[in-house]
Every structure is written in structure tokens, then in C-alpha cells.
Amino acid sequence: MTPTASPTASDTSALGVFDDVVRSESSLRRFLHGLPGVDQVGCEARAAGLATRSIKTTSKAFAIDLAIRMVDLTTLEGQDTPGKVRALASKAIRPDPADPTCPATAAVCVYPDMVATAKQTLGDSGVNVAAVATAFPSGRAAMDIKLADTRDAVEAGADEIDMVIDRGAFLSGRYLQVFEEIAQVKEACGDAHLKVIFETGELQTYDNVRRASWLAMMAGGHFIKTSTGKVQPAATLPVTLIMLEAVRDFREQTGQMVGVKPAGGIKTTKDAIKYLVMVNEICGGDWLDPDWFRFGASTLLNDLLMQRTKMTTGRYSGPDYFTLD
């Protein structure tokens, strides 16, 4: 389920459309600060309104299975062991061992040193291995270290790389530095796909979220991602709305699709469905696919499985029915 790049995607700035924009710090700043400002009240009101939408039983069953297929099942802890990663990878392949109709997740997301373990367990299941890189979660390291981190993960078998931007550089207005780092990491990814993490909880304003979205897309990111899950607030509906509007507008301007991944704090089926409703409303059905929308989560999967069991059997299973992640 590795996202397939648009046939019009280029290796650096998208389609050459933005070559003049990224030629200098001043031109890039002009472009990013020339983007329409975000109406905070309007954005939050629209996100809240979309969150009240309800869906019917058959649509809910479809949404639950789709959400499971969109999960990047994640463990990013200092106490991660090979055994824990193998168990997580097995769960990603067969989330509900008692029900073979339950779909697999999109990917397993781990630290680079656990990529080989995850890859060995996943085999040819179709579940990808995503690795966090570039001095996750801080993004504070020399560029050669970030690139080596990325290459090591790819050589170990990572299908996807989740990089973090240098928020200090971004907030200092060093946009060209951030652009060039993303472009270099993308090159280091080779055939692996690149998700660019903003850590929106540290970006301070909605306008900065919009600017970071465009910066990452122009630099060639295949996905834009809200958070590391290590900083609060992590994913929120208003922030995700802004990012969805950005990928929609980017496609209108360039013809190129970019995916979106909210991560951190999405724990319930009700939460996941709110995000899917928003995706459909803002971007349309093309993005309702694991190639273009993901959830970075661990506990979310269990709630999706419990709700799925309730819908298929009429009985609600307790949280101890499924393995804890």
C-alpha cells in the first residue's frame, strides 16, 4: 500500500512550478507570507460543524474498515523491544485473528533500528514499514546525521520515512533551509515515500501550519503529517482542516496529490470518523484511500476493532479482548 506518486511529480519542487519561488530566501518568504491568512474563528467553527455529522450503519461499517486500513500502527518508545515490534507487526497483518475478513493496517511505524525486525515479520503481507528519522522527535541534528539516519532506515527495508522539520529554523523564518532539508531527505529516501512532520503543537499559529504545508509540498513531500505524538496538542481537527485545504489547493495548482496524516491523540472510532467526514468534505473521495490519508495511532486500532465486533456480532467486546499496543 505504498502511496503511488503522481505521474507529474518531480524530484525537487513540484513540477518546476515553484522554481522561481524557491530561488532565494526572500522569494520563498514572499510566497509563504502571501498565502491567504487563516480565519481562526471560521476554521474552528467549520471543524466543529463537520464533527457533528453522523453517518448511517452501513456507511459506519465501511468507515471503520477504511479507518483500519489507514492506520500506521505505531510504537515509538525507548522501551521498544524486538518482541514488541514483532507482536505489533503481526497485529498489523491480522488485527482481529478471530475474523479473517478484518483488513490489515496500512503500515507499522517504528524507530530505524527496529525496521529490519518489522520487515522480517511483515514479509510480503502488503503492510508497509514506516520509520521515523532525521533526529525524531526534535529534528535537532546536523544534516549529515539526518541523511545518514534516513539512509540507514531505507537500507534496512523501510518503505516510508517520517521526517521531522527543524521547527527552530522554521519559526526563525529560515524557510529555504527547511525546504532544502526536506528536498535532501527526499533524495536520500530513494524509492521510499516521505512524510513530513510539522509538530503543529509547536508552530504557534494556523498561518504557520498553512505555510509549513506548502513548504513541504513544494519540496516534494509525499505526505504532510501533523505531529510526532510527543508534543501536546498533537493532531486536532482545525489543524487537519488547514492541511487538507492545502493539499486540495496544491492539487488544483499543480495536478499533484499529496497525502495527509494526523497523528497523536486520535483514540476512538468516533474521532476517526470525524476526520474521514472532513476528508470527504474538504478534499473529496480521492483522498479516502490509505495511499492519501493515514492515522498515526496505537490505541485507535483497538477501539476500531471493538466497534467493528459490535457491528458484526451485536456484542460489545471489552478492551481486554484485543491485545494492548
TrEMBL record:
Keywords: Lyase, Schiff base. Pathway: Carbohydrate degradation; 2-deoxy-D-ribose 1-phosphate degradation; D-glyceraldehyde 3-phosphate and acetaldehyde from 2-deoxy-alpha-D-ribose 1-phosphate: step 2/2. It catalyses: 2-deoxy-D-ribose 5-phosphate = D-glyceraldehyde 3-phosphate + acetaldehyde. InterPro entries: Aldolase_TIM (IPR013785), DeoC (IPR011343), DeoC/FbaB/LacD_aldolase (IPR002915). SMART domains: DeoC. It holds the Pfam family DeoC. Gene3D superfamilies: Aldolase class I. Its EC number is 4.1.2.4. Belongs to the DeoC/FbaB aldolase family. DeoC type 2 subfamily. This is Deoxyribose-phosphate aldolase. It comes from Nocardioides flavus.
